[in-house]
Each structure stands twice: as C-alpha cells, then as structure tokens.
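User: My instructor asked us to take a sequence, write out its structure as tokens, and then describe one feature of it. I'm not sure where to start. Here is the sequence I was given:
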Amino acid sequence: MDSTEVNQTKISVKHVATAIVGLVFIVFASQIPQPTSSSTVIPPGGIAFGPETFIRSTDKPATIIRNFSVANPDANYFIQIQNGENSTNRVSSAIIKLNDQTIVPPNEFNQNVPGLSKGIVLQQTNTLEVELRSMPNSRLTVTIRREMINTTIQNKRNDLVGNNNLESIGLVWDREEGAVEYVIFRSDFISGPFVEIGRAPTGLDRRTNAEDITADARKKTLCYKVEARDIAGKTIRTYEPVCVSSHVANPHELDDLSKRISPETFCLNEQQLTDTSTMSLSDIGVFLQKWDSFLIRQDKDVDGVPIDPATIIASSSASFGINPQAILGTLERESAAITRTSPPPETTLRLIMGFDLAHPTTIRQQIQDGTAQYRRDFDRLTGGEPTAGGWQLGISKTTLDGVAVVPRTKVSAGMFSYDPEVGIGWGGNTGAGGNFFLCRRWASFNFPIPPQAVTLDQPADVTATSLKLSWALPAFPDPDFLHYKIFRSTSPNVTENDTLVATITNQSQTVLANTGLTPNTTFFYRVFAVDQDNLSTGSNEVSAKTSLAVGLANTPWPMLRHDMQHSGKSVFVGIDTPVSKWFLNLPDFVFFELAIGNEGVLFGKTRSDQLLAINPDGTLKWQLQLEPSPIFTLGSTPAIAADGAIIIGAKKIYAVNPDGSIRWSFESPADEFSRSSPAIGSDGTIYIASTNLSVAKLFAINPDGTLKWQQPVGFLSFDSPAVANDGTIYIRARGSSSAFDAQLLAFNSDGSLRWSFLLPDGESNPLVAQDDTVYHIGYDNFLYAISSNGNLKWKQRISPGSTSVFSKIGLDNDSNVYVGAHREGKIVSYNSSGNLRWTLSIGFPVNCIGVMDASETLYIGTNSHGGVFAVTKDGTIKWHFVSPDNPLDIVGCPILDQNRTLYVATNSPTRVYAITQ
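Assistant: Let's start with the prediction itself. The structure tokens for your sequence are:
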C-alpha cells in the first residue's frame, strides 16, 4: 500500500469479532490500552477520602468522625467499603453517616457481605461518621472516590488493563505462553468474591481482549480478574484484579451519545475539523498532563530521535489545517495514547495513529501522515471527488463491521475513509473500536459536540414567489441550542456563505414561509442548527422550483388606475400634510400615470417612447428607448407582471426585465401600441389595444410574448382594457371617424364577443365596480353606467355645457362614483344608483380623479398649474399642494405607495414629483 494513502480496508490492527456462545463477552479491537511491565498504578478515580480502615476496639462502640473537603462538589462520587481483610475480621453491624444522613444502615452488613459500593452526594466540606457494632478487631476500609469518565485502569503488575467505554467495559491482558483460553471473573469488590462470567480464546499476538457489555458494566464500579489455562484446563497464570469505575454523564449525556449523534453527521463538523485555533501548543501540553498521558514523558521516538509529542501535534495541525483535537481523538481511538499512562510496545508506537499498517514508521511520522490524510480526504470531498477509501457525500457505503452509512458531511466521509468501522455504539459488531469509540472519547475529553442536524422536508405550498419549509426536530434536541439559520441558494451545496433567509431562536419552531422569491427558479435550502459555542450542523438539502408567475404584480401600484378594474383604489393611507420629498427632471414628459414595480422602482413611458426606471430616492436607474410609434407619439402606463416583467407598448409590445434588458417583444406590422396601457389578467394574459388607421384591434398576448388571439374593435382605439373579476374584458373603441360613434365592447377570455353597447366616444377608460357595473364618460359630458349584461343602468350629465370632460373615474368602498368636469374645474360625485351626492369647485381644470386611499381621501391632479388636491369622500378639500419652486401642471394621475408618498408626472416642467407626509 502507498504510504501516502490510508489503507482502504482498515487502519488499525483489529481482531475479527468472535461471539462467545452464552457469554457476555465479545473479542474486540486493540484500541483498548495495552499493559506493559513498567508503570505506576493510577487509582480508579480521584480519591476524595481514604482509604482509611476503621477497627472495632474492645471498648463500648463509639462513633469515629472524619472531616474532609472536595474542590468540586458538583462531580459524581461513590463510596467503596471493604468488609474485613482477606475474608476475615468482617463486621456484622455498622452505621455510616455522611453529613448527618445515614448512607449505610446496620442491616446492610453481615459476615457474608464482602463490602459494598454506592453513589453519594458531597458538599464542599463534609463530615463522615462511622460506628462499628461488631466483635473487637472487626474492621471496615472506607474510600470515597470521584467517578471518572472513560478512565483507563491498570493493575499493579501492568498485565491487565480495564477501560470504561461508557457502554461497556473493555479488558486487555498480556498473552500467556501455553494458554489456550482465558477465564474472566467479575466482582463488585477487588477482594471478591469473583464469579466467572465468560471465557475467551487466546489470540495470535501477545495481547488478548474481551468486553463486558452487560448493563451493570455501565452503571457501577466493577472489578475483574483473569486466569490463563492450558490445554488440560490447569490455571497457569492469574492476573491481579483491576477495578473500573462507572461513568459520569457530562452535559451532553454520554449514555445517549448514540442518540445525539449519528455516523452520518459525526461528533464534529467541518468547521471544527479545520479549526486550528482550538488549542495552542501550551494547551496541548496541559491536556496531556491532565490525562497523565505517557506522551508527556515520551522524550524519544522509537528510532531514538528526541521528540516532543505536543509540538509534533501542534506542528501537524498548523501544517495541514486540521484541528489538534481531531489528532488527539485519533491518537486515543487508535492506540489509547491519551489515557494510557505507560508507553505501549514499540510495535504500537510505530502505528500510533493507525496509519498505513503495511509500513510502520515512528510517532512523529504517524502523526504527520495521519493528519495529512485527513486534509487530503477533506480536499477531495470539497472538490467533489471520493476519498482514498471510496467514501463520498450522500452515497451509501457499508463499513467493515456491516453497517450502511450515508455520509452527510465531509467529516463523516473522511473519518470512515480513515477507519471504515462504526463500532458497537452505532450497531457495529467489532467491539469497542471504530468511529463511535472516537466520538466517545471526543465527548469524554469535553471537546464540543455540534448540534444534531434537523431533517428538512420537501418544500410545500410552492407558488411563483413563495414556499413553505418545515423540518423535524432531532430525536435528542441540543441542550445548548442558540438558533436555527436557514440559508438559500440557486445552486446545489448550500453553505452558510449563501443567502440568509431567517434566524429562528425558538427551538420548537419548525416551519418557515419564504416569500419574495423569483418565479420559475429552483431554490436550494439547508437549515443550520447553531449552539451556544457557535457550532453549527447543516440539515439535508432540499429544493423546489417556483412556478411561472402569472397575473399582476403585488406592488402598491402595478398598472394604470392601480388594478385590472381601473378602480384607482389603494390599500394604503395617504397624506395628511403634504411636503415635497424630491423631484426628477425628465428628458420628456410622461403623458399618463406611473407604475410601481418591485423594490419601489417607478416606471413610466414618455411621449417619445422612452421607458424610464426611477429609484425610490428620485435618481434615474435606467432609460430604454423603445421603437417609436410611426402614428402617435403619446404616453401610456406600464403594467408590472407578477414575475417582475414591465409590459409596455410602443411600436411593439415589450416585456422588459427589471434591469432594463428586453425579455421579448411582439410585433403586428400594421399596428402600433403606443396609446394603450396594458392590463394583465389573473392567468397572465396581457390585454392591449392597437391603433390602426383602418381597423383597431384588441390583442391577447401570452406571458411568453406569443399571440393568444386578436379581435377587431372598430376604426380607432386609444383605450386601455379593463378586466372584471370573472375575466370579461371591456374596451371602448370608436366605430368611425365620428367622435360620437363608439361602442363599449365586452369580450370573453377566449376572445369571443359577449356584447356591445353603443355610446359616444370619450377619453376615460372603462371602470368596473364591485357589482360589475361598467362606467364610462362620453364626449357628450354624460357618465354612463352599464350593467354586466350590456344594458344601460343609468346616465347623468356631468357638466351642463358642451365642453368635453377629460377625466379618469374614481370609486370608493361604498360604490360612490367620482368624476371631474375638466374645464369647469369641479368634481362631481354620484351614488351607485346615479343620484347626485355633491359638487365641489376647485378652480382648476380637473385632469384626473387619481387615488382613493384607504382612508377614502381622493387625490386630484389638475392642469393650468393647479397642482394636487386632497378631497374627502364627503366633498371637502383637505389640502392643496403646489410645488414652491414651480406650479404643477399635472399630465397623469397621482399614484400612492406604501410609505405615504404620492408620485405625479408633470409637463410644465417635465418632471416627476414625490410628495410625502
């Protein structure tokens, strides 16, 4: 095998798992610390008190009191009591109290009880009371210990080692020449009595291993001894017992580690794997000291070269950009190099990182090469390539111990390339080895564990501009939860550098609506769970494509007269006291009113067929010269489609993107579209009238710019269609050259004529009321109300004179109608039955009944430099605004946005004004 690559089948030497029928042991991997012949015994847990032997005197039973203190009373402690000595001098009755609480009553002792062990709670200062009630010279030995997590314990001869793996007790012992099997015994006390619990065959190398996976092994301190037997069944070696303490749960609940993390996401994430700032050289040294690792005393490598392992770890971390904690965890997984206190054999040191078994090297080379392998695999995965071991993101691969894993992170894929076993904690069958063992150690070292990933469902309720995300909480929600961060991208492999959609601080909130999306676009999402350490874990990735947006945009004023019915009604409240906000000089005047697109951008077309885009701050965003009309050079109002396209007519019909580029154009050679403002139906169909000196037409254009249908509408049409809620399209067209020969036409959505109504021509566009009554002003100065079936409901003369009325129509929530007598300078209101409500003279020609805002205030545009008027629905002038630097001669109607700002175009001077509160 190439020494630059990880062995693709296995990193460290491991025995094949062999079940022992009827026993609680399985043979397991050699990551369990290996005994040696030279080491100091490390007691099983920190001693808080004792050991002290209490002996019954010949006097009357007396209470012996001992006071002691502990630095960390929040830790877990247990009391061990050995009854007698070598099965003699046992106590029959005794009372033991701790801080005035009886923890051992008299009935728990007799001559057959060798001792006991139980958990206790300590204070910073403690009082222990012992009273012996038995025969003189009987005795108890009391020890109080702090329980340790994953402590490696060696017996005095260093030939038997025990290790608490949280879900099991691992044992390893020196091989005895001539032994064919080993008998394993267990007891609650180091003095016994020991009970046989299993047998293990001898291994081929000098170490033999077994594991106690019963429930007791995780819950209490247990002692073990081993006997080596020859082929005749004779004991040829007895290994001195070793006691292994029970585990202590840390804040991440080590007992539930397999629930909290999974092999797919692992116990560290990509952010952690590549974070070299977690530990300095000094921190590494302190860490090794804390665990009393033999590495702090390993001053020479196996080839005699002087080394400092902490420096090697720090240097390798910096050189390859790998977290030093990951190196320490790997050293522990492969050779228990952190928790073992005495050096393992040279053969183990040469493979201390479990790297390249075919070519054992040295401690320094192993650490460097193993760290480099992590970086190589990480870089391969980042580049979309599989690891050296064939692992890759999102693709299932079976581990050596028979578990299918689908890596969801680069760390998971890289770790399984380095060690392709999950270990017993994740359902593997090779004992305590594998990647779960590393995660156990990671937790016991108090290295931060990232939050568990949530599982994203496929997006629901997908529309053109929105969708709903939902996710399931993990089975073991993170106790250090800080927030969720939802990120979005238009390409796969979403990261935390992509668009942040939302931050959610409520862990129980698992639903989010994402709005304001671009239609007909595929969006990719991931939810990142973030904890108090600012560690994050990403969910699975989901995607959805928004539908093709149809209909009118949801902006404050998306088309002529606000909506398809030409109601002129805004859902926003307007202005109480007007002030000038800004004005923008234009290259030519905008003949009709403006429209408001996405992000508040204003759009208007000049009489010379320039489409203008104006930022909300009054600066010109862009201008686009459309092909001019050869017949008429007048203005019209754009319509904003739901997908953001700006629809406008000139010589052709154009769909313009928000950036000013042309999406498509439609041309009918004999027609031009400069005078008609488009309307957009709920299905996205664009309706617009053409001007043609022989036969004018009504066109229906599909959202992609193709012709849906066209119908002739008479001699000439300057009109803009209105669309009722039922889809009926209304348009007024002149039937001949006579100004008093016109028709109001109603078309079905398929282009068929529904009805026609003969009436005088006029300048107003049809308005469709809530009850589908259609209103029209004729050149005869009458306001016509036509029912939805084409019959006249009523008509009323607006002005007694013969002067034509040039005014848009207004409507309020009670279906009252408002019109302007242009040259007479007055406003007239009728109710829905045609009865006069009131008449108001304002002294200037009324060009447009503009906005009816949410408070039912009308905003009126005037000619002859009359400016803008605000009028209440009962006919009272609320205010009158004229620009201080120049009177306003209004061409189009005022429009209103959500920020209480009116926008109006003027032709003297040629400007757009913004008037605000």
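For the description part of your assignment, you could build on this observation: The two ends are 78 Å apart (CA to CA). Try explaining in your own words what that tells you about the chain.
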